[in-house]
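Morning run. Coffee first, then this:
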Amino acid sequence: MTITGTINQVFPRFYYKEGKKINYYELLVSYNFYNGVNEILLLAKDFDKRDLNNKEQLFVFEFDIASKFVNDKLMTDFYLQSYKKVSNQNENPLIVIRTYFEKSGFEVLNKQEVKKRVKVFGKFTSIHRNQPPLFCYFWEDNHFLVDLNKISKIQLNCRSLPYKDKYISNVEVWRTMENDNFIGSIL
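And here it is:
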């Protein structure tokens, strides 16, 4: 997955595994998605603090999604693989958001009624055998969705929302895609 955005905040974190302290960072990143601003919390092994000097600096972030559906709850983390600065020499840089998933199969796991709408939790199996399944949700009344069994690509809305003293990350199926040369949302 690829997004272009700015770094809002960086939180140093740690946990213990087998008695050893493991340090990592949480990067809160803002990006535009279909004319709306989203925030996403990316977990990173390493981060150069000098990249915080300019709040307006754009970066291209490559990340992976780790998701699971346990006890009727969707749990998602976004893992930063790499990032790089977008050159400021170009007055109008190309901002690409490529968050689509190529699926081979789909399974409904659960449905919930929320404020008179139906939220569907599903499991998508990738066409790439080494890629783990993707657990996400969509709204049954989403008019951008067609029969999910007939479509191979789905556009995802990846975001993290503040909740008390932490962020909850989730993946929403935004639309289905039929066009093979679709590269994402270009703003």
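The radius of gyration is 17 Å. Good start to the day.
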